[in-house]
Amino acid sequence: MTALRDLIKDPSAAELELIARYGGFAEDSRRERSFKAFAMSGLPHRRMEAFKWTDFKAKLKALDGGKSGRVDPFAAVAGHVITVTPEAITGLDKLPEGLRMVTRDDGVAFGASEDVPMGALTAALTEQTIMFDVTATPGQAIRLVYQGAGAALFSRFVFVVRPDVELRVFESHLGGASLNASLVRFDVKARAQVERTLIQPSALGEAHAITAEVQLDEAGRYTQTALAFGGDVARIETRLVHQETGALAVVNGAYLAADGHHIDFTSHIRHGARACQTQQRTKGAVMKGGTGVFQGKFHVPRNVGQLTDADMQHNALLLEEGAVVNAKPELEIYADDVECAHGNTCGALDAEALFYMRQRGISEAQAKAMLTEAFIAEALEAAPDAARDILLQTAQDWLGV
Q1: CA 354 to CA 224: how far, in whole Å?
Q2: What pLDDT was estimated at residue 99?
Q3: 8 Å CB contact between 333 and 365
Q4: Alpha carbons 191 and 210: distance in angstroms, whole number
Q5: Residue 376 has pLDDT above 70, yes or no
């Protein structure tokens, strides 16, 4: 314990609580590796390049606390519900056909520990990892509902999706604790398909770290759609690897940040096989006092990355003076036979479109809300039909449409 504490320079109260929590686990080499990787930096802070705009250390003061009892926007979506709280995980009995579950109480290795400190922390402090072997297409979607309920929440799921199988997952990150940390992994085998749709409602007084690992085999397909409203600090991080030829990834998201809210969309996508495709579109709108962050990176190796087709777009609206958006799109390309592009824009609403709507009797507030909704809607188009309307309605409620 003393050695771990010494790894963190000037540990905060929250970091001391995290060290104490880790000390409650039985000795385990894989759990230790993950926690040491986290302890080398401690809670991410602005002096770390990957977190220069998203400072967990400054924002997270303690582990307990938070506002529970938020309504689940996906409550009307049909599916098998698995509810995750600090006390228990319910809904693991009577799983849909095609899912075989294995639970692990020991540490499960997290390969990106050194690069993803919040993911490493989650891997180290999750008491029980839930692993699903998806051998046939389930008859219904899987709904993961995360609820902190006043105590820090750490959870980890692994889905191994077998060849030619389809899986649909809906995630509701409802907060309820000062720190809400989740880690999910999808191993998408040959020709399998995964649709992941997540929502993270407004969560002032809370920190969220939502991390996903994805590996795509030959002709595998992964579609992700996220809508997030942030909190004191919130980060949705996706690390995806194309492992075999012909894989396709669609990684989309939209963020809406009000006063005092911080939301960070970060992704790292490695094209580690020939002829793979990635489509990424992120849209955001930020009000005075809010902060939006986008960090996206495509890595294309020299040989195995040939024939890559990848496009990354981030567009944001500054709805009021005092809104902040930070963006860092990156292409790291070593192959020479590729089609890769990226774009990034930040600006205000179209003045001409606003004037046109005002001339037709629409109030200024309503016109701004309608234009903003239309702006972010493109990033939600890939969501399943059952969720797209809910995502748009949730955005409309925030905008006051």
Answers
A1: 32
A2: 96
A3: no
A4: 26
A5: yes
What pLDDT was estimated at residue 70? 82
For 141, the enclosing helix (H) or strand (E) is: none
Mean pLDDT of the chain: 94
Q: What tokens were used for 290? A: 């809010």
pLDDT score, position 6: 73
Q: How far apart are the first and last CA of the chain?
A: 53
- The pTM of this model reads 0.95
The better pLDDT of the pair 327, 369 is held by 327
Going by their DSSP bridges, the two strands 89-90 and 80-84 should be labelled as antiparallel
- Does 394 reside within a domain? no
Query: Token digits for 68?
Result: 């529970």
Q: What are phi and psi of 102, to 5 degrees?
A: -130, 135
pLDDT at residue 374, as a whole number: 93
CB atoms within 10 A of CB 361: 8
231, β-bridge pairs: 203, 262
**Section 36-57 average pLDDT:** 95
The share of the chain scoring above pLDDT 70, in percent, equals 98
- pLDDT (tens digit per residue) in 112-134: 888 999 999 999 999 999 999 99
CA distance 118 to 113: 9
Neighbours of 88 (CB within 10 A): 9
Q: Which amino acid type is present at position 165?
A: V
- Identify whether 362 is part of a domain: no
Q: Which two tokens stand for residue 114?
A: 């050194």
DSSP codes of every residue in 60-88? ---SS--------TTTTS-SEEEEE-SS-
Which residues in 201-247 belong to E strands, given as ranges? 203-216, 221-228, 231-242
Distance CA 196, CA 383 (A): 8
For residue 30, report the phi and psi dihedrals to the nearest 5 degrees.
-75, -40
Please give the Cα distance from 269 to 265 (Å, whole number).
13
- CB neighbours (10 Å) of residue 29? 9
Compute the distance between CA of residue 160 and CA of residue 185 in angstroms, rounded to an integer: 8
Residue-range definition of the domain harbouring residue 47: 2-348
Assigned domain for 143 exists: yes
Domain count, the chain: 1
pLDDT tens readout for residues 53-111: 999 999 998 887 766 668 899 999 999 999 999 989 999 999 999 999 999 888 888 88
Torsion, Cα of 350, 353, 356, 360 (10° steps): -110
**Residues 389 and 395 sit within 8 Å (Cβ to Cβ):** no
